[in-house]
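Subject: sequence -> structure tokens, single chain

Hey, anyone have a minute? Need the predicted structure for the following. Not urgent.
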Amino acid sequence: MTRLWCELAWLGGERPDERVLISVDGERIESVTSDADPPGDAERLPGVTFPGFANAHSHAFQRALRGRTHGGPGSFWTWRDQMYELAGTLDPDSYLALARATFGEMALAGVTLVGEFHYLHHGPGGVPYEDPNAMGHAVLQAAAEAGVRIRLIDACYLRGGFREEPDEVQKRFADRDVDAWIERVNALPDPAAAIHSVRAVDPESAREVAAWAASRAAPLHAHVSEQPAENDGCLAAHGLSPTALLASVDVLSERFTAVHATHLTDVDVSLLGDARVTCCFCPTTERDLADGIGPARTLRDAGARLSLGSDSHAVIDLLEEARAVELDERLATMERGNHPTVELLSAATADGYRCLGFDDGGRIEPGALADLVTVGLDSVRLAGTDAEHALASVVFAGTAADVRHVMVGGRFIVRDGAHADLDVPRELAAAAGR
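Reply:
Had a minute. Here:
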């Protein structure tokens, strides 16, 4: 039994509870008591303790692009060429090192669960490794060594574009057909599924991926309407928007997550809201790639949930992703207060866990997974914060640098801002510095 006494803890309300005693038995929370005196054997956690943060959309290998693709002109499509060049250089060993360092950085930022949207499957020219899931197993091992939970979201990828064959690099992403994808993904431990995009998967194959996920009650994700060119291409090829196309082949459900959902029609919003999907916003990537600002408030009003991801890892900071949803929408709408602070926190915690298939995480309550993040209030950014304003202060002024302690499954993987097992800066320099 481990007992933690939190100066402040967010239990889901409009403000944090004070003097919260959390008892942890194994990997789960046994009890939560507010306004409690600290027992002598309790570890004291100054600051605000939150449920663990869920990074619901990650491409770990893209961490190696940081700083190399950000300063020049171009668009999503020119950036994609640079990303393809990087993808072509990786093998299972180098991917393990890069992903472990990236997940280590996530741990330091308070991420306790990552959804890895995985499409870098095969060797050069699309030749499968001896183990067809060698790259996926490298990613799973990387998360285990970094101490974070992972949901491997294995992406079906069959085409290079609408009715186009994959190019040389895309062959590394692509399976022969949807049956080959199913055969390969069936060998993975407890995966989620993804339709990479309507560009990369034809409608009937998308239907098969959705059926596979439904038969296992597994999460299903897809990139949706990240770019206007994707919408234009889908309309030209199929006469439907990407969302409408996915709806027509039975993809949309409460288990579905639409990643980005940036360029939507009113009909798209209604389809997503009526199906009670989750929409994963990745603001630091979306602004880096000049993708645009998605209609987050409209989607929530229609019935969708929101989650957050750091995607290409221009920055790994879930607090930045959370506030950016609100601040970017302020720029787009010229109105403040589109998203209450607690909704942004829910997107970073419970709703992120839920869209990755971990309904028992992202909350501080008895029976929940003991995944916790403590944010200090003693930095120059947060010094002087009182309990009444602590949540808004952390969300709108805090950063990953303010994360002090991180627990996953009852074990501290970060203490006093340092990883318990990894020298993360050294590993990042070696793996991402290339």
